[in-house]
Amino acid sequence: MENKNNNTRRKFLDKGLKLGFVSIIGGFGLSKLISKSSAQSKSSTSEKIELMTTDGTLIQVDSSEVVEIEHSTNHEKKYNVREGMPNRKFVMVVDLAKCKNALACQSACNKGHYITGDNAWLKVYKMQESKETSPYWMPTQCQHCDQPACVTVCPVDATFKRRDGLVLIDNERCIGCRFCMAACPYSSRVFNWDDPKQEEVYTNLDMNDHPVSTPEFGGLPSVKGTVDKCDFCPHQIEKDELPFCVSACPNGVFYFGDKYEDTVTNGDETLRLSKLLEDKAGYRLMESLGTEPSVYYLPPTDRLVDFKDGLDKFTEFQSVEKPKL
Amino acid sequence: MKNLDTLLKDLAPRKFKKLGVLWTASLILIIIIGVAAYIDQLIKGQVVTNMRDYSLWGIYISNFVFFVATSFVGSVTVAILRLTKNTWRTPLVRIAEIISLAAIVMAGITIMIDMARPDRLLNLFIHARLQSPITWDVIIIPTYIVLSFLLLYFPVIPDLALLKKHFKKESPFLSKWYGKLSLNWKGSKAQKIIQEKSIKIIALMIIPVGLILQTIDAWLFSTTYRVGWNSTNMGAYFISGAFVAGIGALVVVVYVLRKVYKLEDYITPFHFDKMGKLLVLGCLTYLYFNINEYLIPAFTASVEEEIHLNSLFKGHYAPLFWAVTIGGLIIPILVLLFKKGRKPRSMFIIGILVVIGSWWKRYVIVTSTLLHPFLPIQGVPESWRHYFPSVHEWLITIATLAMALLIITVLVRYLPIIPIQRTMDEQKLFKNNKNPEL
User: Fold this and answer.
1) Of A73, A252, B16, B324, which one has the greatest count of Cβ atoms within 10 A?
2) Could you give the CA distance from residue B56 to residue B59 in angstroms, rounded to a whole number?
3) Cβ pair B60, B363 in contact under 8 A
């Protein structure tokens, strides 16, 4: 008897659940159908209007679909750290023909971003493709890829890609899984294994002024257990200044600019990006991977400097100068 | 043919003797030391490990992969053997389920140990992004934990009801808990139908979920550009590796429990022979994918790939690589192909070889690749070019292994390791059918 009761209750519950599920789906479908049919009834006018899209093609649109929109007035307020600066696309060109490993870029970057670890964000690699080919110096930092492998694998959206081309890190969100570092083929990411202790090394830095790190100024402050990397200096751009490495380089190796404006500058000369890349056969690192970097390289041809001049400064095991305490 | 009383006497959980108590106490001690090391890591940061910007993953991740692989034994032995109606599995399934549950729970814990900011664990849910393989892991591991638990729990319910009666006089406290956990099991037909149905659904579900779990684990690596990881072979390679690691662990645990609990009547050389065949099947499959992974790429290796393969074949990682390949794969195949090699004692030794080989194999997979990035390693301290785990890493890792063993030990202490009810039912069945086996 009890068993039977049990069974009927079970069946009732089972049927009830199924019925409820079906009615939810049915209701949803019905509402969709209704909204569709009402939309169709609205488009009864047969007047067409010709419009031009942003890329210049002409299209015809039913006049009833055309709605006037107000011009937005709050450009400034709409600025979003994750969206980036509107209508800009930052790029960099590195002229390998001029680099002689002066390392001014590196020390300016280290100081500017208060780096205290053992791995700099910008490194000048001693490169040689094969025994027969000539060695050269290659400054490399985050390539700010348009198809960033690091962003794809981040589980919490801590590292993100902006419309202005920058790949940045929200150090207040990063969980320290280091998957982005494994994903990056350029080894450009560094990790705060230890407490950064920036105020001890950079005595001019008052941590009370910077309680929370912002993606737009990497390393200010660095957060233990999170990833850092080159931020393309949006904090400098904001002040209408060039990134630390660009302005520090004594040889004008780095050109920084805006792809939409098609101009890049190293501080001394301002050039057309497309022409520069065409004239000097610009290329990008590991193009075959499809990461679409924002950093272009000009091959080390017709060099004004001797490779050997850079050897004095080359330190195999150090990229961040430790202050003498 | 044994009656219920003998079965209960033989198979009901028993109090630990001296050795058991000593074993449990040492496990707890190891765990306490590991927890202390972990707390120190929490305070000081990951700097206490020997991981650095190049070798950015180390023993924690390889240990995690090992646990995930071992947890596959539940899907294989229990579900697959069940669906293929292999009745010899009966005395082994409970042990397999216990190993599976312990391993997957520990996998979940180990991956958190690697996180440098465990305080931000909730971000994985609040800001979850579906495109990241880590998010897939966050979804699949809890799913597998639940399924593994249910696959252990549902079949044990009738036994819990039996134990409730059995312990009535001896230990009223235990009896009460067995009663509560047995969910009022009376063995009625309706209950049996529901139980049978539930187990079938779980068994059907755990096979795809298990395959997905192993594959996602492989995709953690193969979704990067890294040489040695970026391989389409990875998913199948990891599944077959998990097959081997899981069965290896099962053989070892079964052998030990059989010795300690004197279960020679229930777990016979016949069962070892069967497990041996299953293990050698796994090993052969794994060998096939190893050839695909290491030997075939050598023919068309790019410069980066050649550097990587050279470090495995004759460089820094060569001793370890060949040890795990020969010791953990070739020797087991050669021994287990012969009937003599599938005797209990030789199986036990092979099982240990396989488990140790599996653990180190994952270490080789994880750490060797990271030390060969695309751009040269320059401008960092010399020590960043190598990796060997620090004391903290060893203590914590050994503690996680001890914790897995402790979970197994506790479950073995309180659950009948061989299904009592099922053994009885099957005995009746065999008697009626005059089945000569068993």
Assistant:
1) B324
2) 10
3) no
pLDDT of residue A76 exceeding 60: no
- Work out the widest C-alpha separation in chain B, in whole angstroms: 77
Report the residue of A105, A128, A136, A153 to disrupt the B interface, i.e. the one with the largest count of B CBs within 10 Å. A153
Residue keyed to tokens 């194999």 = B361
Q: How far, in Å, CA of B271 to CA of B433, rounded?
A: 20
Closest partner CB to B56 (pick from A127, A178, A192): A178
CATH number at residue B370: 1.20.1630.10
In a domain, B438, yes or no: no
Judged by DSSP in three states, A123 sits in strand
Q: Give the number of other Cβ atoms within 10 Å of residue A59's Cβ.
A: 10
User: Does residue B239 lie in a domain region?
Assistant: yes
Residue of B nearest to A191 (CA): B53
Between CA A80 and CA A170 the distance in angstroms is 13
Task: Please name the helix (run of DSSP H) or strand (run of DSSP E) that holds residue B316, with its range, or none.
Answer: none
Range of the domain at B9: 4-433
Whole-number Å distance between alpha carbons of A198 and A205: 8
Tokens of B81: 């053997």
Residue B178 pairs with which residues in a beta bridge?
none
Measured CA to CA, the distance from residue A235 to residue A232 in angstroms comes to 9
Cα B57 to Cα B224: distance, rounded to the nearest angstrom: 13
Q: What is the dihedral of CA B312, B318, B324, B325, to 10 degrees?
A: 60
Instruction: Kindly give, in sequence order, each residue whose CB lies less than 8 Å from that of residue A280, ignoring residues fewer than 6 positions away.
Output: A95, A97, A298, A299, A301
Contact call for B46 and A195, based on CB within 8 A: no
* List of chain B residues whose C-beta atoms are within 8 Å of the C-beta of residue A118: 52, 380-381, 384
Predicted confidence (pLDDT) per residue in B115-170, tens digit: 999 999 999 999 999 999 999 999 999 999 999 999 999 999 999 999 999 999 88
Whether residue A222 contacts residue A118, with contact meaning beta carbons closer than 8 Å, is answered with no
Q: Which residue has the tokens 């149905």?
A: B197
Number of separate domains in chain B: 1
pLDDT digits (tens, 9 = 90+) for B210-235: 999 999 999 999 999 999 999 999 99
Catalogue the E-assigned strands of chain A.
48-52, 58-62, 90-95, 123-127, 136-140, 159-161, 167-169, 190-191, 227-228, 254-258, 263-265, 270-272, 295-298
> CB B374 to CB A286 under 8 A?
yes
- For residue A92, list its beta bridge partners: A256, A295
pLDDT tens for A154-201 read 999 999 999 999 999 999 999 999 999 999 999 999 999 999 999 888
In 3D space, the residue among B338, B412, B359 whose CA is nearest the CA of residue B65 turns out to be B359
Q: Do residues B7 and B424 lie in contact, with contact meaning Cβ atoms separated by under 8 Å?
A: yes
Q: Are B283 and B332 in contact (CB under 8 A)?
A: yes
ipTM: 0.92
Q: Is the dihedral of CA A73, A79, A85, A87 positive or negative?
A: negative
The domains located in chain A, with CATH, are 90-313 (3.30.70.20)
The answer to whether the CB atoms of A149 and B54 lie below 8 A apart is no
> Long-range contact list for B141-144, CB < 8 A, 24+ apart?
B141/B68, B141/B104, B141/B107, B141/B108, B141/B111, B141/B213, B142/B108, B143/B209, B144/B71, B144/B104, B144/B206, B144/B209, B144/B210, B144/B213
Q: Largest Cα–Cα distance in chain A?
A: 99
pLDDT above 60: residue A1: no
